[in-house]
């Protein structure tokens, strides 16, 4: 069960971007709605909305359709559900990178690269990445909790459920470690690096692509161990 558990750490590192670099990206975009300027962090509400939308869709639409193909009463097994979530997290980081590429392109066209100012690209272009992250959360986190509760030995169910929650904190630490390593290597030789104070002269999109790549590798490793995993026999 340990490799399955470890796969959640990379996912949690991706999830950590919602309260960190997604916000920093949003601050450098047009946040005006009429005469009102919305806080960049407020877009995390779309993640909550996404979860609220995806839970009933999963229960009432996806499960009945999947049940016809998998012949599983639940539609998907816990392992399949987590795998779908991990794949969706790759799409989430790719969407964030594409938005950043467009934002940087506008900054170059308008000569704002050397200016620490927001570019005229609506912050609502971030909505897809928040929605994808919410969908990934529904599949991965819930699937993970179900997996560890049902597959753990009876005497270790509470412990294994707690360990599944540990991936959240470890993912945050991993995110900070990756950011530190990236900053160290990309600022060598006096370069501004991928994530400078002025994001207009950086390459935050490279960092998002890096996380997308790590998430994809994590998915491949997960598939290998998930296919080899033997389900717990019913007592």
UniProtKB/TrEMBL annotation:
<comment type="similarity">
    <text>Belongs to the major facilitator superfamily. Proton-dependent oligopeptide transporter (POT/PTR) (TC 2.A.17) family.</text>
</comment>
<dbReference type="InterPro" id="IPR036259">
    <property type="entry name" value="MFS_trans_sf"/>
</dbReference>
<keyword id="KW-1133">Transmembrane helix</keyword>
<dbReference type="GO" id="GO:0022857">
    <property type="term" value="F:transmembrane transporter activity"/>
</dbReference>
<dbReference type="Pfam" id="PF00854">
    <property type="entry name" value="PTR2"/>
</dbReference>
<feature type="transmembrane region" description="Helical">
    <location>
        <begin position="206"/>
        <end position="225"/>
    </location>
</feature>
<dbReference type="InterPro" id="IPR000109">
    <property type="entry name" value="POT_fam"/>
</dbReference>
<feature type="transmembrane region" description="Helical">
    <location>
        <begin position="82"/>
        <end position="101"/>
    </location>
</feature>
<feature type="transmembrane region" description="Helical">
    <location>
        <begin position="163"/>
        <end position="186"/>
    </location>
</feature>
<keyword id="KW-0812">Transmembrane</keyword>
<keyword id="KW-0472">Membrane</keyword>
<feature type="transmembrane region" description="Helical">
    <location>
        <begin position="40"/>
        <end position="61"/>
    </location>
</feature>
<dbReference type="GO" id="GO:0016020">
    <property type="term" value="C:membrane"/>
</dbReference>
<protein>
    <recommendedName>
        <fullName>Major facilitator superfamily (MFS) profile domain-containing protein</fullName>
    </recommendedName>
</protein>
């Amino acid at each position: 069960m340990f490799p399955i558990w470890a796969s959640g750490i990379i996912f949690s590192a991706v999830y950590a971007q919602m309260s960190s670099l997604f916000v920093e990206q949003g601050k450098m975009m047009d946040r005006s709605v009429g005469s009102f300027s919305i806080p960049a962090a407020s877009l995390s509400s779309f993640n909550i909305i996404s979860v609220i939308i995806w839970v009933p869709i999963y229960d009432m639409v996806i499960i009945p359709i999947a049940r016809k193909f998998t012949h599983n009463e639940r539609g998907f097994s816990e392992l399949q559900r987590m795998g779908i979530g991990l794949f969706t997290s790759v799409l989430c980081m790719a969407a964030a990178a594409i938005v950043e590429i467009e934002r940087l392109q506008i900054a170059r066209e308008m000569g704002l690269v050397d200016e620490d100012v927001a570019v005229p690209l609506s912050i609502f272009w971030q909505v897809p990445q928040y929605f994808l992250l919410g969908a990934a959360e529904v599949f991965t986190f819930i699937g993970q909790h179900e997996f560890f509760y049902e597959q753990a030995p009876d005497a270790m169910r509470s412990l294994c459920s707690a360990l599944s929650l540990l991936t959240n904190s470890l993912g945050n630490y991993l995110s900070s470690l990756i950011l530190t390593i990236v900053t160290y290597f990309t600022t060598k030789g006096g370069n501004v690096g991928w994530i400078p104070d002025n994001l207009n002269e950086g390459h935050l999109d490279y960092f998002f692509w890096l996380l997308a790549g790590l998430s994809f590798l994590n998915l491949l490793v997960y598939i290998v161990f998930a296919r080899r995993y033997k389900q717990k026999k019913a007592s």
